[in-house]
Amino acid sequence: MRKMMRHGLRWASAFCLIAFAAVPAMGDVIYNNLTPNNMMAIATRPDTTAFEIEAGDDFFLKSRTSINGASFIGLIVPGSAAAPSVSQVVVEMYRVFPLDSDAGRIPKVPTRTNSPSDVAFDSRDSGANSLMFGTSVLAPNFTVLNTVQPGGIHASPLQTTGGNGPLTGQEVQFNITFSNPFDLPPDHYFFVPQVDLTNGGQFYWLSASRPISGAGTTPFPPGVTDLQAWTRDAQLDPDWLRVGMDIVGGTTPPTFNTAFSLAGTAVPAPASLTLLALGLAGLAGTRWRSSQRP
Predict the structure, then answer these.
(1) Contact 94, 56 (CB under 8 A)
(2) Which alpha helices (DSSP H) does the chain contain, by range?
(3) pLDDT at residue 16 greater than cutoff 90
(4) Which strand ranges, in their side-by-side order, compose the sheet holding 86-95?
(5) Phi and psi (nearest 5°) for 257?
(6) Dihedral in degrees, nearest 10, Cα atoms 275, 277, 283, 284
(7) Rounded mean pLDDT of 22-36?
(8) Rounded distance between C-alpha atoms, residue 102 and residue 26, angstroms
(9) What tens digit of pLDDT does each residue of 225-259 get?
(10) Cβ atoms of residues 131 and 123 within 8 Å
(11) Residue 109 burial (CB count, 10 A)
């Protein structure tokens, strides 16, 4: 009996190792709305050379997931000095308010319902070598109809500015590999990328299709609301504003998604792995007993 169990468990363990080894390095598509358009571009940058600006758009996970890759598309707009280059990329993951937040505080914005939380759930930084990035130019000149530029975010009651108008820049795609993948439990999250540029340049995250549509995209599952893009800067922190509803405003305010995708793999629950191992061990035992019959 002990020999049979050892044989079965060795076979089960080998099967599990083979199964995990077969998972692609970048994993499967977890979310995809990499469909940039010219409706809106939102400034976003870490606080390394100027005040911090964040912009976030949401995605939903039905099960625990390891996120090991991401892509996002935006504009690189040069300053008055030489051509800019990318000096730092930060990616943050936020949960939905009121998680990770002080829900008892009086906010400085019209609403916090369905906004990102006060503080990030987790983050990765190229400066800390927890992510690697590459870029590719999609268009040398790309003009958006409206923007939220640095200094264009204001607390209530002055939040509705209509936006800061059109802007032209270089359309660039960022492809990210997380050397330390995000381990995210099932939940509703906001993806928040930040890009720091040299020589006074500024990065703007481009809007994307809403509702989500197009070949290869991943609409939200039934019953889960696709939330809109939010933004804040260091002066508004910890509150957030809706880019379309609050900042652009108008009689019929627009709503925006932003252009990004995520790659990774679902992480099996420990109970599932145990059941798999026991099932395989039982199967191995049945095969062993059959082989001992005359």
Answers:
(1) yes
(2) 2-21, 270-292
(3) no
(4) 122-125, 86-95, 187-197, 53-61, 230-233, 241-242
(5) -100, 175
(6) -160
(7) 77
(8) 36
(9) 999 999 999 999 999 999 999 999 999 999 999 99
(10) no
(11) 19
